[in-house]
Design a protein that fits this description.
The complex is a heterodimer. Chain A has seven helices and no strands. By secondary structure, chain A is an all-alpha fold. In chain A, α4 crosses α5 and α4 crosses α7. Chain A starts with a helix and ends in a 9-residue tail after the last helix. By secondary structure, chain B is of the alpha+beta class. A three-stranded mixed β-sheet of chain B has the order 1-2-3, covered by helices on one side. The longest helix of chain B is centred in the C-terminal third of the chain and has 17 residues. At the A-B interface, α4, α5 and α6 of A face β2, α2 and β3 of B.
Chain lengths: 185, 85
């Protein structure tokens, strides 16, 4: 059985697909639902990853993973992903990615940087798609976003060196911490 | 919003006109906004003369704009493509 993010991705693709021979613009609702559903595919992929990396991936732990997923907000993921912009980890959280006090934090690996940028892009578009019909979104936007998410998820999955796994685990824990190591102020 | 939008527009347009999609780009609009979490961002709409469904090239352009805005220290950009009229 396909995972939930894969099901959502398939639905998003169908929403943005043009029936053979159809000309003219796609209905606005299909474009916007496709964008929103693509965002949710990425969101649910991350929820699953966070559960697998922090609770464990065994079947009998599914209930706990789902309880954890309910507590993770869209904002927490975005706040965390913003701290990976560029090739450097934001200084406020860089210690969390180090393996010792005298070690330099790693550069942001490409699989994580690409996923972070895709998430921020998807969330901004999803907000307009769902809440602001005055903001422009086109068929091209839906297709480009779907292609982007379709690319970054396998890239993340394929990253499996010990360093990659360390980075993913730290990132997933940081999301649970809402992207901050301590409260501001 | 501290970003100089006119300067950013000039720089981004100049970069796009050196890229592989130069022939189909007519203009860009940049609008500063605040998202639902209260973060500043830039909504950047690329206006096209025509769309030939080269979505991979367009996706590459989108990501290069994101990098360029980041390098300039601007808030995160949300890049969109407006359908040709």
């Amino acid at each position: 059985m396909a995972s939930y993010d894969v099901e959502l991705s398939r639905i998003a693709l169908r929403l943005g697909a043009r029936p053979k021979g159809q000309r003219g613009k796609l209905p606005t609702a299909r474009i916007r639902r496709s964008i929103s559903t693509t965002y949710y595919a990425l969101f649910h992929f991350l929820l699953e990853e966070i559960g697998n990396k922090t609770i464990g991936s065994k079947n009998e732990l599914r209930f706990k993973r789902r309880v954890l997923a309910r507590s993770i907000s869209h904002k927490a993921i975005k706040t965390t992903m913003e701290k990976l912009r560029g090739n450097q980890i934001n200084s406020s959280v860089k210690d969390f990615f180090k393996n010792g006090p005298d070690m330099a934090p790693p550069a942001v690996p490409k699989f994580a940087a690409d996923l972070a940028n895709a998430f921020i892009d998807a969330q901004a578009k999803r907000n307009d798609a769902d809440y602001d019909l005055n903001k422009p979104l086109s068929e091209a936007d839906a297709k480009i976003l779907w292609n982007r998410v379709k690319r970054v998820i396998p890239q993340w999955r394929a990253a499996n060196t010990a360093e990659d796994r360390d980075f993913k685990r730290a990132l997933c824990l940081l999301i649970i911490l809402k992207g901050q190591l301590r409260a501001d102020g | 919003m501290s970003t100089d939008l006119a300067k950013l527009k000039t720089q981004l347009l100049a970069s796009m006109m050196r890229g592989p999609l130069a022939d189909r780009i007519s203009d860009i609009d940049i609008e500063a906004d605040v998202d639902r979490d209260g973060s500043e961002f830039l909504r950047i709409v690329v206006k096209l003369r025509f769309v030939d469904k080269d979505y991979l090239e367009m996706g590459a352009l989108l990501e290069s704009v994101e990098s360029e805005v980041f390098d300039m220290g601007g808030p995160y950009p949300s890049v969109r493509f407006q359908d040709a009229a």
